[in-house]
Design goal:
Elements (H helix, E strand, L loop, with lengths): L1 E4 L5 H11 L5 H10 L7 E8 L2 E9 L2 E7 L8 H6 L7 E2 L11 E2 L3 H9 L2 E11 L15 E4 L6 H11 L2 H12 L5 E6 L4 E7 L9 E6 L8 H12 L8 E2 L5 H8 L2 E11 L4
Parallel strand pairs: 4-5
Antiparallel strand pairs: 1-2, 2-3, 3-4, 5-13, 6-13, 7-12, 7-13, 8-9, 9-10, 10-11
Helix pairs in contact: 1-2, 5-6
């Protein structure tokens, strides 16, 4: 067995390996993005474990984040995963890579994998969840909100929206928002004041493109309580209707808001793990 950089020409082999290893994730549709995509800030490194010319393991890291790590079932318990794990930093986190994540942690149903990581020094730092809304039950959004204009940004308006997202929320969110805006569904909606200033946004399909996951979204504090978030949420969810996981609201914040606005219910739960650095 030897480790070597994973070329893009091995994407099909890597996808097949990951599909087998991660049955609770739609990695079949987003493997290229997870392995070779970035978040606009960190350069990723993808390594394969090879037995001759056969790919038997894969690991993608970006900074301190392990985006994916898997070994073919028939080759486990040979120390291959441990060698791949050694490519990460001492303070590594797994799964919740901002801006380009397969999931916001490790699905709690991957009990064997979680136990394996705990034995190697990883500790739980929290749990988060995805919700899911039944889009058949989602009502059409309001067309007008007093004092605001709601809709998709034009190409001339998009730079101001991205600036707002980057400076008022998070730079890494701007990467996802830009991808959503330029995606096939153009699943970015915003709210502007009467003076044309962007004050709220919501998007979908900017991460895990092709699945239809909702997020990120945000409203500037001075403009909250105006029903902008609810209107943008509904617009965005309906824009990706028909995609495999449309209606999934990922890595949620205010759970009661989503339940009230679109009847969202629990979908998946994830544990966030980080390697404990020895002092």
């Amino acid at each position: 067995m030897h480790l070597a950089p994973l070329p893009r020409s091995s994407l099909n082999a890597a996808t097949a390996l990951l599909v087998e290893a991660l049955p609770h994730d739609r990695i079949d549709l987003v493997a290229e993005e997870k392995l070779f995509g970035d978040d606009g800030a960190r350069t990723g490194v993808v390594t394969g474990a090879w037995e001759g010319e056969t790919l038997i393991g894969v690991c993608a890291v970006a900074g301190r984040y392990i985006k994916v790590l898997a070994v073919a079932a028939e080759h486990r318990r040979r120390g291959i995963g441990t060698q791949l794990l050694a490519l990460s930093t001492p303070d590594a986190r797994i799964g919740d890579h901002p801006g380009n994540y397969l999931a916001p942690g490790i699905d709690v149903r991957y009990e064997e994998g979680i136990a394996w990581l705990v034995k190697r020094g990883f500790v739980e730092r929290g749990q988060v969840e995805n919700l899911r809304a039944d889009l058949a039950e989602v009502k059409s959004p309001p067309k007008d909100i007093d004092g605001y204009r709601v809709g998709r940004p034009t190409s001339l308006e998009l730079p101001a929206v991205l600036h707002m997202v980057s400076t008022q929320f998070a730079p890494v969110w701007a990467k996802e928002v830009g991808l959503a805006a330029h995606g096939p569904r153009h699943a970015l909606f915003c709210a502007w004041t009467e003076e044309g200033v962007p004050v709220a946004f919501a998007c979908a399909d900017g991460n895990n493109q092709g699945l239809g996951w909702f997020g990120p979204a945000g409203t500037l504090p001075a403009h909250r309580g105006k029903k902008l978030g609810e209107a943008l949420l509904v617009h965005t969810l309906l824009a990706v209707e028909g995609l495999p996981e449309a209606g999934v609201i990922a890595w949620i914040g205010p759970k009661p808001f989503y339940a009230r606005a679109v009847g969202a219910v629990d979908d998946r739960r994830f544990v966030q793990l980080e390697r404990q650095v020895q002092s």
